Each structure stands twice: as structure tokens, then as C-alpha cells.
Amino acid sequence: MILVYINTLNGIGKASYEAVTYAKKLNEAVHVLTNGSIDDQTLSSLGEYGAQKVSVHRGINAVDSTQICNLISSVAEQINADTIVFSHDYIAKSVAPMLSSKLKVGMVPGAISIPDADGNISVNVFSGKAITKIAINTDKKIISLLPNSIPSEKNETSCVVEELSLEIVEAKIKIVSKKELDGDIPLPEAELVVSAGRGLKGPENWGIVEDLAKTIGAATACSRPVSDIGWRPHHEHVGQTGIAIRPNLYIAAGISGAIQHLAGVNGSKVIVVINTDPEAPFFKAADYGIVGDAFEVLPRLNDSMKRFVAENN
Amino acid sequence: MKILVCISKSPDTTSKISFTDGNTKFDENGVQYIVNPYDEWYALVRALEIKESLGGSVTIITVGKAIDDPVIRKALAIGADNAVRIDAEPTEAYFTATQISAYAKDQSFDLVLLGKETINYNGSQVGGMLAQQLDLPFVSVASKLDVNDNLLTVENEVPGGVEVSELSLPAVVSCAKGVAEQRIPNMRGIMAARTKPLNVVAPIECQPLTSFVSYELPNEKSACKMIDPENMDELVALLHNEAKVI
Ligand SMILES: Cc1cc2nc3c(=O)[nH]c(=O)nc-3n(C[C@H](O)[C@H](O)[C@H](O)COP(=O)(O)OP(=O)(O)OC[C@H]3O[C@@H](n4cnc5c(N)ncnc54)[C@H](O)[C@@H]3O)c2cc1C
Ligand SMILES: Nc1ncnc2c1ncn2[C@@H]1O[C@H](COP(=O)(O)O)[C@@H](O)[C@H]1O
Fold first, then answer.
1. How many domains does chain B have?
2. Chain B residues inside the 8 Å CB shell of A141
3. CB nearest to A175's CB, from B17, B165, B227
4. Does the C-beta of B37 come closer than 6 Å to ligand 1?
């Protein structure tokens, strides 16, 4: 039996369907566990991706890593799960290692492949500059799947949703408030990303970046100096010291392509670089390059995309 | 406040990455090591700021061999009071966490800080494992961290917003950008670091849960296709028909 833990505090994200698809590829009965106030009908959509059963604990509505770790370990024991799959999001990053240590079960953080013939699983290391194969030395396994690594696949099974009423340990962490940020698409999950750097000269010029992002339904990102000087919010900073993303398309305007920036975006499927300097290092990592002024190219690209979107909808 | 900061080394961010021994080992030839940026810039500096305002001490701990002492001295130069090195090769996260928890167990630290992840193995695992072993609450990837009496207030960037949570000490927190600003060590700090205590401790027995089997470099990108800046329709067509990403 495979247990998949997913976070549904903001509904079911694409990464959760990927985790269920991944579990199904491991070729066994898939049992999904989640918590929070999400309704049964939404949860039953997980059946379309291979879940046979979904258990939900409605008593846990916030992220207390110890509490969630205990919930998962009780359910894993109950159903005798031999593999526990996570989507490598912010909850998994705190809960999965706790669970690994509690159960003394080896874990693979940020898996990008299913196990090979020897059972080894690939992950990105050295900030995307290399890939390593990890062997788990224990019988049971914990695998935390990197979003955007395995496309979700429909795999109709009949699925039952059950509400759990397990006793849970008391939460030690209290969420006191939540500030909503603007920007609709969370960057780590975005399939399309438009990003800009110091070449844009100032925060007042970001309209052309946002316009293009809006046209194609992309998230926006930026280089580190841009968020350091406060032109853009911190959560948009991608790279070695910001967040690492791997969208299908990364459009970078006015970014030189320093190695620390590349470290956060080199997992993107396709990279488009717009830069006035033909020698900019980013072109070496790009699939499509445009030597030109972002102030002219971005609006022109936006017009072309608008026409494309109009024709294809 | 008695604060423990877990420090790891990592290759300089501009290092060329290659492997030896039939792609089973990281090639350290010519690699410069630095303090892992998350540990240095955020965890350590925030620990020092808290100590400066509330008093107490900042101890740094590393699982590593004598060759890592220069990295430890650098962290001491930034201002930590003393250092502990557990004399073992940190083969994987569970092994590392187990060594640190064995040391920290009886030391009654009020706060244990780590970096969000090491930039070589990028696992984000040691913090959660350590918290579990010390039976302490764990908040990961903090972007802001304040201590008031016994109460810790932590901000986290979560999808769609920022979550603010409260918990009482002792606790384990991993730190990311926003928690503090990088500090450059000054000459006095560097001189003082030479004589600060560095306590070398023998490791305990621990079976690793995972092993790194082999390494490879990602596929080389094929040459970049250059597109006329006047002709964005062409780019759109290529993204649609050739790259199939829109
Ligand atoms: C330890 C460490 C960690 C780091 N982590 C990160 C990280 O996580 N993320 C990150 O991004 N950086 C990081 N950096 C910084 C990194 O080294 C670079 O300094 C940074 O990425 C440069 O940002 P930029 O490309 O926006 O600016 P610049 O390097 O100033 O480049 C601006 C580019 O814009 C081009 N340009 C100028 N005008 C125009 C125009 N009108 N149209 C089009 N192009 C134009 C220029 O030709 C140039 O290539 C890190 C550095 C260190 C030392
Ligand atoms: N060898 C080590 N010694 C001490 N602390 C470490 C070591 N390796 C990792 N850490 C700490 O654990 C954090 C997360 O590391 P990781 O789980 O490897 O991504 C790092 O930012 C450090 O604070």
C-alpha cells in the first residue's frame, strides 16, 4: 500500500495530482491522506488520478509539523504503508524529514524520477548543476516528489472519501495571522514564468513584465538584486538564495544570467532570454535568444502573444 | 538565550561541479568552500542579533572533519562565541541530524537555528530530523523571526501569502532570506576567531538511512536559437510548434 500525503489547505493543487500519479506509477493501491476543511466532492477528484481511498482529518487546519507528522505516522501504520509519497512543497519540507527520523525510514527529498531497476531515485543537487541517484537503505521508503517533474495522468479508479477521527497530539505552533499576497499564481507551481532583472532600470517599468505575464497567464519572478533593492517583493526572487523553479517556459528580460541566478531556473524546460548584450552569459543557457531592448521587445512579444491567445481560444 | 546554530560548508557558488571515481564522488579538486549562505547570512546573523539584544551565547556546530576548520573559523569571525565540531564525514542528513541531536540533547539550548537548505545537497532535511530527535517544535523556511520573553514569532512565506505563527521556546527553526542581512567579518572578528574555543567531539554510532549512489551532469543545452527582435510572431510560433510550451 502506498500512502500519499497532500496539502489541501488552499484546495487541490496541480502538484498533488502529480504526487498521486507518481504513487500510481509505483503500481500499487494508493491511499491519500490530507487534513483541513476541504469538502468530500473536491477530494473525490483524486480518484481520477488513481486514488482508491482518501482520508481527511478535519481537526487539523493549520501547519503544525509535529501534529501532521504524527497524523501521517498513525495512518501509515494502520494501513501498513510501505511507501509514503509527498509533493515537495513547504509542508513536506518540514514534515517529511520529521517523519523519516521518527519512523527511521530513508527519504528522498525532491525526487525527479520513479525508482530505476535498482530502486534508486534521481534528485537535483548542487542547485541544479548536477543530478544524483539516491538509494534508500531501509525497507520502507519516503519519497517527496519535486513539482513539475512528472506530468499528472488520468487513471480512473473508484474512490471513497472517509473522515478520520483520530486522536491527535496538541498543536505547539499557533498560526496568529495570514497576510494575503497579490499575484495569483504561486511561483513554484507556475508553468509559465516571466522574469526580469536590473536591465529594467526601475520598479516603475515592471508594467511591461506584468502585461506579458497576464496575457499568457504566467507568474512573475525577478533576479536577486531587484528584490534586494526593493523593486520587487522577496518572494519573487529566484536563484541559489531565492527559490528554485522549473516551469515549462521561463522568459528572462534584462537578466545577465549569473551562475547563482541560473541555479534557480536551469530546471526550466524552455528558456527565452531577452538582453541588449549579445555576450550576456544567459544566452548559453537559453533555448531562444533575442538580442534587443526589453523596453521594445517585451511589448512586441505581448502583442504577438495576445494575437496567439485570441486565435487559440 | 542559549542559541545553537548549525553550520554546514558548501562549495563556493561559482564552483565548477564535476565528479571522480566513476561518477560516484564529488571532485573537490580546486573547490573553494564557504559557509553555506543560508546558515551564515540568515541563521547565524539572526542568532547574533538576538544575542545582542537579549544577552546569552551563540554556539555553532558542524558535523565535519578537520579540513572544515577554516569554515568554522569564518563563522566565529562573524561573531559566534564558540564552536563544536563533530568529527565525522556528514554522509547524509539523518546521520548529520543524529550527531547534532546527540550533542544538543543535554545542553538545554533555547533556540536551534539552521539554514533552509545546503546549496550542495539541497535536501532541507537536517532541521526536521533534528527537531524530531530533540522532541521540539519545528518551523521551516522562516522569513522573519522574533523572540519576546519565551515566545517566538515566525513568519513563513506560503503559497499565496505570509503566515505568522507563535510558539514557545525551546524550538528549532530553519531560516531563509528576510530573517537577517549578511554581515562581513571585520579584522577584529577575524583575529578574535583564532582563539575562540573549538570543541572537537567524537561521533556516535549511526546507520545512515540513504546513500548517494552516483552523479551525473544535466544534458547540455543545444545551441540557443537567435530570433530577430522585430519578429516576435516567430518566437510565439516556435514556442507553440517546436517547443510546445504554449
Ligand atoms: C552567494 C551568492 C548568491 C546569489 N544568489 C542569487 C540568486 O539567488 N538569484 C540571483 O538572481 N542572483 C543571485 N546572486 C547575484 C548574481 O551573482 C548576480 O549579481 C545577479 O543575478 C545579477 O542580477 P541581474 O542579472 O538582474 O543584474 P545585472 O547583472 O546587472 O544584469 C543586467 C542585465 O540586463 C541587461 N540589460 C540592460 N539594459 C537592458 C535593456 N534595456 N533590455 C534588455 N537587457 C538589458 C544587461 O546587458 C545585463 O546583462 C548571488 C550572488 C552570490 C555571490
Ligand atoms: N554537516 C553539517 N553540520 C552541521 N549542520 C549541517 C550540516 N549539514 C547541514 N546542516 C544544517 O542543516 C541545514 C539544512 O541542510 P540540508 O538538510 O542538507 O539541506 C543547513 O542549512 C545547516 O544549517
1. 1
2. none
3. B165
4. yes
- B161 CA to middle of ligand 1, Å? 26
- B143 and A177 within 8 Å at the Cβ level: the answer is no
The boundaries of the domain holding residue A255 are: 187-311
Measuring from atom 11 of ligand 1, which residue has the nearest CA? A223
Q: Counting every residue, how long is chain A?
A: 313
| Full residue range of the structural domain in which residue B153 is found | 2-217
Q: B71 and B34 in contact (C-beta within 8 Å)?
A: yes
Cβ contact A75:A110 at 8 Å: no
Domain match, A154 and A248 both: no
pLDDT at residue number A222: 98
ipTM: 0.92
User: Residue A251 in contact with residue A194, Cβ under 8 Å?
Assistant: yes
Residue B70's pLDDT is what?
95
Grid cell for residue B89? 564525514
Minimum-distance CB partner of B143 among A10, A94, A234:
A234
Question: End of a domain among A129, A163, A197?
Answer: A163
Distance B97 CA to ligand 2 centre (A): 8
- B148 to chain A, any CB pair closer than 8 A? The answer is no
pLDDT-flagged residues of chain A (< 50): none
Q: Do B160 and A135 count as a contact with CB atoms less than 8 A apart?
A: no
In terms of domains, do A44 and A109 share one?
A: yes
Inter-chain CB proximity B218 and A129 less than 8 Å: yes
Residues A127 and A208 in one domain: no
List beta partners, residue A192.
A249
pLDDT digits (tens, 9 = 90+) for B112-163: 999 999 988 889 999 999 999 999 999 999 999 999 989 999 998 887 788 9
Span of A169-173, A283-287, B169-173, B219-223 with lowest mean pLDDT:
B219-223
CB–CB of A173 and B137 under 8 A?
yes
**What CATH number corresponds to the domain at position A150?**
3.40.50.620
Interface of B with A in 21-60 (CB under 8 A): 37-38, 41
Report CB contact under 8 Å: B221, A286.
yes
Q: Is residue A258 part of a domain?
A: yes
Alpha-carbon distances of A177 from B163, B164, B166, rounded to whole Å: 6, 5, 10
Mean pLDDT across B163-186? 94
What does DSSP assign to residue A11? Answer: B
Could you tell me if A128 and B196 are in contact, meaning their C-beta atoms sit under 8 angstroms apart? no
* pLDDT tens digits, A149-174: 899 999 777 899 999 988 888 899 99
Chain segment B33-70, per-residue pLDDT in tens: 999 999 999 999 999 999 999 999 999 999 999 999 99
> Which of B36, B91, B132, B222 to mutate against chain A (most A CBs within 10 Å)?
B132
Reply yes or no: is the peptide bond before residue B170 cis, omega within 30 of 0: yes
E-state strands within B131-231: 138-148, 151-158, 161-168, 171-175, 198-201, 210-216, 225-226
Block residue for cell numbers 510550451:
B245
What CATH number has the domain bearing residue B154?
A: 3.40.50.620
In a domain, A172, yes or no: no
